[in-house]
Amino acid sequence: MNDIGAIIERQRILQNLTQSSSNTNDFAYDKYHTIEDIHAWVDQMVATYPDMVTPFTYGQDPTITHLVDQFDYYILPVFNVDGYAYTWTKDRLWRKTRSKTSVANCYGADPNRNWDYDWCKSGSSHDPCDDTFCGEKAFSEIETAQVAKFIADQRGTIVNYINFHSYSQLWMSPWSYTTTSPAQFKLQDDGSIQAINALTAVHGTQYQHGSVAQIISPTSGSTIDWTYGIANVTFSYGVELRDTGEYGFLLPENQIIPSGEETMAGLEALLMYIDKHVYA
After folding, report:
1. Is 240 annotated in the active site?
2. Which of its termini does the chain have fewer beta carbons within 10 Å around, N or C?
3. CA-to-CA distance for 264 and 173, rounded, in angstroms?
4. Which residues, in sequence order, are bridge partners of residue 161?
5. Average pLDDT in the 54-78 region?
6. Residue 211: beta bridge partners?
7. What percent of the chain has pLDDT over 90?
8. How many CA atoms, within 13 angstroms, populate the side-chain half-sphere of residue 156?
9. pLDDT digits (tens, 9 = 90+) for 228-237
């Protein structure tokens, strides 16, 4: 990532020039939006289409129709709401939550280091001022605690969990805390291969696959280690979206739709793979 300031300023100018309407038909899917914009759009969708409960492609695309019939989906568009809002007002590259810590002027914990699985060991920091601060204790953050509670309440019914991040173009499975592969690694990694093959076929974007620890480095307290190791969600994945570093966390808006298109193709392929193994 070169000249971060210039990239941010260019994106800010473009954002100001192309503010989208709150009208549902004019909502720009190729722009980044504040959390307030997103909430307003959702509210407007509910008001405009109160009976709409299925995707537009349901009944038209046979794959989508089958997958919607086969699974229930729980989608959390923004995991770290306070942190996301802060990136719009103060620090564009902020990654942590915004909770108070034991150190004045050092806020938040890394949500992907705060889960209660091999918590705060490798790849994590005990320093509240560090970006990878693991929190005062496991599940100290309301964001992670509430998502974990929801998943635990659905224990035995969830077969797939995907945590989307950026950037690096990686489709990864457990473990994060150790390079030793879990017993079901091949089953999980074969799913990753199905996903990235379908993803690459859309725009030619190349992804790597494997476990988090093997591809990046050992990291403790991660989301997918908990969902796999504690909640028994076999097909648990962490996905790092575009790109590989040219823009990094400041991905241009003109890549939003292409990234979404290829990611959707990868998801369809993965879910069809999971469907065959769960309902074989």
Report:
1. yes
2. C
3. 18
4. 236
5. 83
6. 173
7. 76
8. 1
9. 999 999 999 9
Rounded to whole angstroms, the Cα distance separating 169 from 244 reads 6
Q: How far apart are CA 211 and CA 185, in angstroms?
A: 8
What gap in Å lies between CA 175 and CA 179, rounded to an integer? Answer: 7
Question: What is the pLDDT of the chain when averaged over all its residues?
Answer: 90
| 2 and 75 inside one domain | no
Q: What is the pLDDT of residue 162?
A: 99
If one counts the domains in the chain, the total is 2
Q: With contact defined as beta carbons under 8 Å apart, do 213 and 179 qualify?
A: yes
Q: Note the residue count of the chain.
A: 280
Amino acid identity, position 111:
P
Residue 34 domain boundaries? 1-53
Q: CA separation (Å) from 87 to 34, 66, 114, 194?
A: 9, 38, 20, 34
Do 10 and 63 lie in one domain? The reply is: no
Q: How far apart are the first and last CA of the chain?
A: 45
What pLDDT is stored for residue 3 in this prediction?
59
Global confidence as pTM: 0.85
Q: Are 264 and 168 within one domain? A: yes
Helices and strands in the chain, H and E counts = 9, 4
